[in-house]
Amino acid sequence: MSDDRFTPLAARLPATVPFVGPEAAERAMGRPFAARIGANESVFGPSPDAVRAMMAAAGEVWKYADPEAHDLRTALAAHHRIPPESIAIDAGIDTLLGLTVRLFVAPGETVVTTQGTYPTLNYHVAGYGGRLAEVPYRNDRTDLDGLVGRAQSDRAKLLYLANPDNPMGGWHEAGEIMTALDALPDHCLMVLDEAYGEFAPPGTLPPLDAEDRRLLRLRTFSKAYGMAGARVGYANGHPEIVAGFDKVRNHFGMNRAALAGAVAALGDQSWLDGVVVSTAAARDRIAEIASANGLAAQPSATQFRHRRLRQGRGFCDGPARCARVPRHLRADALRTAREPGDPHRGGHGRRPRSFRRNPARRPR
């Protein structure tokens, strides 16, 4: 039964969330996971510099965070060589997706996305009364031509594209993205989710351009930077588009310690480089495990591998659902995830120093 004080739109919405959290799944199972691999978190963790910065900032949390996130915006602007006014900071890409939908999509207007891709956008579109137009994958990749064609035919306000893609792990080169962008109608904004961009091969990410009104880029400190729990993401776009976020965002919604950690993480690119190298090694090892057990692993530019399983072999869409996958395969994959090693020693060796200091951060 729904409370009749809800708006008609809210009353029609299902009581759901885009994802079931690992903790909720553990409570439902009554036991912890053997390895926490279902949320695409980085077990290498953040840079030790970021950890120290967050610890130092903890004593200052009686203060609100700077609502303009000046230090992080300035650092990102210098890092990417773009003006600070082309950057918006908020609590992860998920929050920025919600704000983007709120800014651009009126009830009944259309958003084009890939069927089966990262689902949080869909949650926000439904929540604001928009309409989803979904395009299936083609040959296990996002169908750029299909997405653009649907944006044209449905007069879409937004076209959402995750590149590299979650959950398939595939990617399009920058030239393909720009070709699709050139074909978009003027009424449509491309929202390019680059959460896994640091893992992508050279030539995947188009250069950041603060003057392009057709494109909004979203990036995060949750994946390669290992700060998923800190909730720090940022958008890049034309300054007039970015300024729109100030109309709808929670100006005091950021965590003071998280902002300090993000600045420090951005300044430690050697740690990031080590994580990227070690992640690639672990990703290749997962592919070897899959191949040895008759499974085909899709090419990936992320920190996970999508596998196409033969009919009847079972499936694993998270540790809670692995019962039909052979036990030796589960054990090998979990061992690989559980032993990340030091990213500066090539992986699968000594744990990072911060991992050893804080056992609570180890995957369960």
Radius of gyration: 21 Å
How much β-strand is present in the residues?
A: 5-15%
**CATH level-two architecture of the largest domain:** 3-Layer(aba) Sandwich
Stretches where pLDDT is under 50 for at least 5 consecutive residues are 311-341, 345-364
What number of structural domains do the residues give? Answer: 2
Mean pLDDT: 85
Q: Give the C-level CATH assignment of the largest domain.
A: Alpha Beta
What's the CATH topology label of the largest domain? Aspartate Aminotransferase, domain 2
The total of helices stands at 14
> Biggest sheet, in brief?
7 strands, mixed
Helix content: 25-40%
Order of H and E elements: HHHHEHEHEHEHEEEHHHHEEHH
Separation, N- and C-terminal Cα atoms = 38 Å
General form:
globular
Write out the CATH superfamily name of the largest domain. Answer: Type I PLP-dependent aspartate aminotransferase-like (Major domain)
Q: What's the total number of strands?
A: 9
Structural class: alpha/beta
Strand order, sheet with most strands: 1-7-6-5-4-2-3
How is this structure best described in words?
With 364 residues, the chain is of the alpha/beta class. The chain folds into two domains: 34-46 and 270-361, no CATH class; 48-267, Aspartate Aminotransferase, domain 2, CATH 3.40.640. It has 14 helices and nine strands. It has helices at residues 8-12, 22-29, 48-58, 70-80, 92-104, 120-127, 144-153, 174-183, 239-243, 245-248, 256-267, 269-292, 327-338, 353-357, and strands spanning 87-90, 110-114, 131-135, 158-162, 189-193, 215-220, 233-236, 296-297, 307-308. A seven-stranded mixed sheet has the order 1-7-6-5-4-2-3, with helices on both faces. Strands 8-9 form a two-stranded antiparallel sheet. Helix 5 (92-104) runs parallel beside helix 6 (120-127). The radius of gyration is 21 Å and the shape is globular. It starts with 7 loop residues before the first helix and ends in a 7-residue tail after the last helix. Mean pLDDT is 85; it is low at 311-341 and 345-364.
